[in-house]
Amino acid sequence: MADRSGGRHVIVGLVLAGGRSSRMGEDKALMRIGGHTLLERSLAVLRAAGAERVAISGARAGGIPDRWPEAGPVGGIASAAGGLPDGEWLVIPVDMPRLHEDVLRPLLATSSPAAVSWQGHPLPMRLTMNAATREVLAGVMALAGRERSVFALQERLGTTRLPLDGIDPRYLLNCNTPQEWREVNA
């Protein structure tokens, strides 16, 4: 199932955009910043970081529908795992309007057999998708409620957590509410 280009795995970018945006009151993926929607911006950031193939989780045009509704970000990852190739994945949420490629590149540069994220931030992350990761992911999806989370997946994979040295934590802020959105745009 590996998608290869020149003998190496292709870097896959995945934008998690399947949530209901209930706290925001409107679809976060379609909110605009700098003349672009958050979804357009997220796809561009992934490409700039080196993703040669990008995908979107969620029931929207061109998206990968959630096989597990209401399962949060880990459900989006699990749904995408059914249709995307093995290799190095960059997984980002659609609601990080300040995220840019310089925050993602160190995740790709770090050698880790399973996953890499920033300390204190489960997303974005670099995830090595392979048979072992798919097995762990299936186990996490069998859990109930809050036990089924990106954090649970990362704990079971033994994720490497990078210190935020030199990374402005504001680049990793999610916007889930109108107040957070106003603060980001201030």
From TrEMBL:
Keyword Repeat found: no
Organism listed in the record: Luteibacter jiangsuensis
Domain spans labelled MobA-like NTP transferase: 13-152
MF terms (GO), sorted A to Z: molybdenum cofactor guanylyltransferase activity
Keyword Nucleotide-binding included in the entry's annotation: yes
Pfam family, one: NTP_transf_3
EC number: 2.7.7.77
CDD domains: MobA
Keywords: Cytoplasm, GTP-binding, Magnesium, Metal-binding, Molybdenum cofactor biosynthesis, Nucleotide-binding, Nucleotidyltransferase, Transferase
Domain of life: Bacteria
Record protein name field: Molybdopterin-guanine dinucleotide biosynthesis protein A
InterPro entries assigned to the protein according to its UniProt record, in alphabetical order: MobA-like_NTP_Trfase, Molybde_CF_guanTrfase, Nucleotide-diphossugar_trans
